[in-house]
Specification:
Blueprint: E1 2-4, H1 11-22, E2 26-30, E3 40-42, H2 49-52, E4 55-57, E5 59-64, E6 69-74, H3 83-96, E7 102-109, E8 123-127, H4 129-141, E9 150-153, E10 157-162, H5 171-181, E11 185-192, H6 198-212, H7 229-234
Helix pairs in contact: 1-6, 3-5
């Protein structure tokens, strides 16, 4: 299962758009929840006039059996105080559906990085203990950087470290709940700022592709991903909507 967190710059959602559009994934259902702001809009992945009037809502499920891939796309923000009920419902569905692994695409405020996080790539990953056993070695081979923990009380007690993902929305809660429930989850995230987040989305989806090889390419470039029609139709210069 691949899904985005509703986080800074909506980078996870935009990267998920690129996956669905490029792989031409089939919509197979909806994820009904009262935890998201209700919304409805036209088909964001329309390829012809015939399917442009199909309706889309705030949480939809797409499938690609040939790659054993299911995608949950989220298109609206969370209602206040509904993070935890959503996580519980989602993880219950993950278990009942027997999803082997969950990959969460997210982002975090670039301006809130500590000194260590300023070094090297702006891309990070997290693995639950159950997934660490399976793919931890591969992440080291890819030379990926794990998300650093930061001081719980900077300047007062720098020895106590905690996981801090400012701007990450449900990311931390969903990850910690997955750890406690024995769910194999990976979080892939990028440090970024609000604005034109197209480059961030391409960077994150290329990061994902390094690991899962959703599309075959010797060199990860932006041109290999198919931009959804909604990005072009709503913004002539290719700038995507932050939210519908």
């Amino acid at each position: 299962l691949l899904q985005p967190a509703v986080s800074v710059g909506n980078v996870g959602q935009l990267a998920t758009d690129l996956v669905i559009s490029t792989l031409n994934m089939t919509k197979v259902g909806y994820f009904y929840t009262d935890c998201l702001v209700p919304m409805v809009g036209n088909n964001p992945y329309a390829t012809a006039e015939e399917n442009s009037m199909e309706l889309s809502i705030n949480a939809e499920v797409y499938s690609l059996p040939s790659k054993r891939l299911v995608v949950l796309q989220i298109r609206s923000p969370f209602i206040k105080n509904k993070y935890r009920p959503f996580c519980q419902t989602l993880l219950s569905w993950v278990k009942s559906s027997k999803c082997a692994r969950v990959v969460l695409l997210s982002s975090s405020h670039a301006y809130q990085r500590d000194d260590e996080q300023l070094l090297g790539t702006p891309l990070r990953y997290l693995l639950t203990p159950d997934l660490q056993k399976a793919v931890g070695g591969l992440m080291q081979e890819l030379n990926w950087k794990e998300m650093e923990k930061v001081a719980a009380y900077p300047g007062i007690n720098d020895t106590e470290k905690v996981l801090h993902i400012p701007g990450g929305g449900i990311t931390k809660l969903l990850f910690t709940e997955s750890c406690s429930k024995g769910i194999q989850m990976a979080v892939l995230l990028k440090f970024c700022s609000e604005g034109d987040n197209i480059p961030d989305a391409f960077a994150l989806v290329n990061y994902l592709n390094e690991w899962l090889q959703l599309i075959r390419s010797e060199v990860n470039t932006s041109s290999q991903w198919k931009i959804p029609s909604s990005w072009r139709l709503l913004f002539g210069n290719g700038l995507p909507p932050a939210l519908f």
